[in-house]
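Continuing the batch. This is chain 6 of the set; chains 1 through 5 are on the previous pages. Same settings as before, nothing changed between runs. Recording input and output for traceability.
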Amino acid sequence: MENVPESTSPSTSGDGRDGPVDSGASASPATPLLSLRGISKNFGPVQALQDCDLDVPAGQVTALIGDNGAGKSTLVKCMSGIYAPASGQTFWNGKEVNIHTPRDASDLGIATVYQDLALCDNLDIVSNMFLGREETKYEMLSEIKMELSTKQTLKDLSVTTVKSVRQLVGSLSGGQRQAVAVARAVMRDSKLVVMDEPTAALGVTQTKLVLELIRTLASRGISVLVISHNLLDVFGVADRIAVMYLGTIVSEGPIANYDTTSAVELITTGESSRVPSRLSSSL
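Output for chain 6:
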């Protein structure tokens, strides 16, 4: 019998595809797209994650916040197949799955956009979008098909600041580079896009571009998990917040339950007088 999170019900439908992971095509509206239960990870004697529980609903923006060293990046790498958790369970559309590699995560529909973006500055936008999965015909690159697909994807995401898809990525602004990295993830039919500090080191105009891009993804039914230190951005774009403190998620819920004061309290102490904390309830 298949285990599911206590707060969710199992999905009764899926695409039935064989492989190391189960993509789970659909689920009950109450079932989160991604659920983590009891995720722990240590590096030798260092306990990086301890019994982390997290729900990421479909079509919503979830902000993962916490101080430096709280474990945010480690948790994301566990759900992205970079690290293997020491213990815990991962559920996709209510079905338990095993994510051993980044390929497993990609097959499910999880795309992670890291801070370095993994773009090649010496290639144009089209080449970056299709890097490693180029379209070919008669053993030749289908340049026109790839260019049209790139233009359409950027148009669907309302990315209008790029003059030409044949621009070298190295000539783009920080916000435009973020847009290309996200568009590449969307082109691969991602259902969950994880963004690690997407507005770090960006100016006001470029930050606005990235936040609008996040809203566009959510409006298209794509879930977004944003790691950010900028509470102004978080409260401007997120539907939900999850707060990490010393390797565990101490609070999680709709954005309406929080304000900047309670968020800062949870980030710095793991507790708040304004909202419930898992840390205080466990004492």
